[in-house]
Amino acid sequence: MNREFAKDATGVPVGTVALFLNLGSALVALLHNTGGTPADYEWLCLGCGAHSFSPTHRPTARNSANEHAAACRALPWPPHQH
Known about the structure:
This protein has one helix at about 60-70, and strands at about 15-20, 25-30, 40-45.
């Protein structure tokens, strides 16, 4: 399943509240969505593109993002040329 996440000028997804570094030096972003409930946290790997499949509470999403970062060896994608 592919999802699109809006990114700011730095290339970090909008709503990022924490970043983790994976083994290949790509970032894994912990995101807070604006749904208005405590279960509005997701994560996205900016290396391999993996992401959480459903919003959850911050500690659960943070732990999952950190676990992914600890195992993922994907390299960061180069910036897109416009």
